[in-house]
């Protein structure tokens, strides 16, 4: 079942901007619904710039998008891509790097040519990478569509709580929560300290911003976001009020 609404919570302490929200029963169906929305945008915007998150939540979306392409329902090579973020110091050979995850789950299976994508190189100087990715975005006008996940601490990309709110890409000291969660991607504790990311402000310039969350552990942060949290504490709140923001939740993430 799919439920759609403006997503305001009853009993909020103050009026938070309503977010267009779609709630589905289960995470696998969530991926189907989000993939269909992404495919529709791509069909309508040949040559557009798409910014994709890694992380566990959107991975099934990428599998579904590849399947839609195989079925002739979308040409994923008709747009350009920019990677959302990367762990500073990690490259393709490092299990759980964004480059590895996205190459193996999406760019490779979808056959996206290298000249159609620009992802952060975590092994290069992060400030030089910021400048290069900023240029890539500027060369394509701006990000048209982005698919994001929200972290347990409210981050989007590596826009961590308390991180600078700036236009260009950002090099950020990782939050303790993010460092702790990183073990699930790497399979072991790694001494990651910084991330490099498209800034929340650049993401907020996109026409269409899909923000996904699934599972009970995301319910508290989703509830804080919907209640109009302070963006300095919950960076995803920088997207509040964006006319193109669409929150996609499974029932568990909606239950906070
Ligand atoms: C990943 C990223 C992060 C994740 C977020 C949720 O590229 O930018 O913001 O989207 O931490 O991660 P998961 O989906 O693993 O819970």
Query: What are the secondary-structure elements, in order, as H or E?
Result: EEHEHEEHEHEEHHEHEHE
Count the DSSP helices: 8
Q: Measure the end-to-end span.
A: 19 Å
What is the strand arrangement across the widest sheet? 1-2-11-10-7-3-4-6
| Share in β-strands | 15-25%
Reported for the largest beta sheet, the result is: 8 strands, mixed
Unreliable residue runs: 6-13
User: What helical percentage do the residues reach?
Assistant: 25-40%
Number of beta-strand segments = 11
Question: How would you describe the overall organization of this protein?
Answer:
By secondary structure, this protein is an alpha/beta fold. It is 31% helix and 18% strand. About 3% of the residues have low confidence. Bound molecules: fructose -6-phosphate. Fructose -6-phosphate (F6R) binds next to loops.
In short:
The chain has 256 residues and is of the alpha/beta class. It contains 8 helices and 11 strands.
SSE layout:
Blueprint: E1 2-5, E2 20-24, H1 27-44, E3 49-52, H2 59-70, E4 80-83, E5 85-87, H3 98-110, E6 117-118, H4 126-139, E7 145-149, E8 170-173, H5 176-181, H6 183-186, E9 194-197, H7 200-203, E10 208-213, H8 219-226, E11 245-250
Helix pairs in contact: 1-2, 2-3
List keywords for this structure.
3-stranded antiparallel beta sheet; single chain; 8-stranded mixed beta sheet; binds fructose -6-phosphate; alpha/beta; 8 helices
């Amino acid at each position: 079942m799919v439920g759609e609404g403006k997503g305001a919570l009853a009993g909020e302490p103050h009026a938070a901007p309503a977010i267009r929200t779609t709630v589905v029963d289960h995470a696998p169906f969530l991926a189907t619904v989000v993939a269909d929305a992404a495919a529709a945008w791509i069909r309508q915007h040949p040559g557009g710039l798409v910014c994709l998150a890694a992380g566990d939540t959107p991975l099934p979306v990428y599998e579904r998008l590849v399947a839609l392409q195989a079925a002739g329902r979308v040409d994923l090579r008709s747009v350009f891509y920019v990677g959302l973020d990367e762990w500073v110091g990690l490259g393709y050979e490092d299990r759980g790097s964004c480059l590895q995850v996205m190459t193996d789950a999406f760019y490779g299976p979808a056959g996206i040519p290298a000249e159609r994508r620009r992802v952060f190189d975590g092994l290069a100087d992060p400030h030089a990478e910021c400048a290069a990715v900023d240029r890539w975005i500027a060369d394509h006008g701006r990000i048209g569509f982005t698919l994001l996940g929200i972290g347990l601490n409210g981050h989007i990309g590596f826009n961590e709580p308390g991180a600078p709110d700036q236009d260009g890409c950002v090099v950020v000291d990782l939050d303790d929560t993010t460092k702790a969660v990183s073990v699930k991607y790497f399979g072991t504790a790694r001494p990651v300290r910084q991330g490099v990311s498209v800034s929340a402000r650049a993401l907020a310039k996109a026409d269409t911003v899909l923000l996904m969350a699934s599972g009970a552990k995301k319910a508290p942060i989703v509830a804080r976001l919907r209640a109009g949290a302070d963006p300095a504490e919950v960076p995803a709140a920088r997207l509040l009020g964006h006319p193109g923001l669409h929150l996609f939740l499974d029932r568990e993430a909606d239950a906070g």
